[in-house]
Amino acid sequence: VQLQACGGGLVQTGGSLRLSCVISGSIFSINHMSWYRQAPGKERELVAAITSEGSTNYADSVKGRFTIFRDNAKNSVYLQMDNLKPEDTAVYYCNAHLLDYVMGYSSDYWGQGTLVTVSS
What we know:
By secondary structure, the protein is mostly beta strands. It contains no helices and eleven strands. It has strands at residues 2-6, 9-12, 17-24, 27-38, 45-50, 56-58, 66-71, 76-81, 90-100, 105-110, 114-119.
């Protein structure tokens, strides 16, 4: 199983970016999918999560600005980020809890990270 994230980049304060994460491999089913981020010198934190039924939750710091959504047909999860702030600067990681039909059990998988830099 592989998670391939993309969409990061440099943007000015108030700008927007959309992150994408495509999951490939021996996927039987995908449960929840999430985006995390890690800023320099800080611990990794949950940004947003979405269940297989489409229920979402967000970190307080991004509520009203970020939107997580998924395309089950494409095994993909997205993070639309609007009104970006310098404090959103971080490496963003996608995460999926899924059942791998080769391994035969569910586990968490991580993407490689994509850097988002918001200039002031």
